[in-house]
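Reopening this ticket.

The earlier resolution said the output was attached, but the attachment link was broken on my side. Pasting everything inline this time so it's all in one place.
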Amino acid sequence: MYLRYVNKLGIPRDIELTGEPLSIGRSREADIPLLDEKVSRVHCGIRLSEGEFYLKDLKSRNGTFVNGQRVEDTVKLKAGDRIQVGAVVFVLEAASEKANAAKGLASVQDAMADGKGYTTILKEIVEDMPAAAPAKAVSAEPPPPRPTIQIHHPAIKISTPPEEPIPAPNSADTPPAGRKKIIIKR
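Inline output:
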């Protein structure tokens, strides 16, 4: 059996469960240390007894959950169980991804040793896959036109006033020459 989880760095981890007890907690001495404020220093433990794995909550403050149910003391584990300790969720698996990949590779190598080619093996794998849903019939009609979205930008119009005679330099009543009038239309 394997305990699978994703560590704080986002890396999936598989831990093989053996006859040795396994502790989970915030402490560095825990077999699986978790950096989570909601995890007690020694939160829970997993042990093998008479061929079965058991999880024991070690009086943690925030509790240990198996399949959404809080563990009061000890609970028997089975493949597929989801164990939550703080924010981390562990999944109990019968075999690790590495073990499954090794088995798959070994079976392909055995088939090739028996004389099958790589293409034949791939064809058999595809044929063993569940049938996909039938594809929808393709219509000969063109798809309906997509609606167009019109975006209106404000128009800026720059106009210059009509040419006026240049005023005498001493005249304070007339505005300075060269000014432009800006009109924004929406």
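Reporter confirms the inline version is readable. The first helix runs from residue 97 to 113. The helical segments are 97-113, 118-128.
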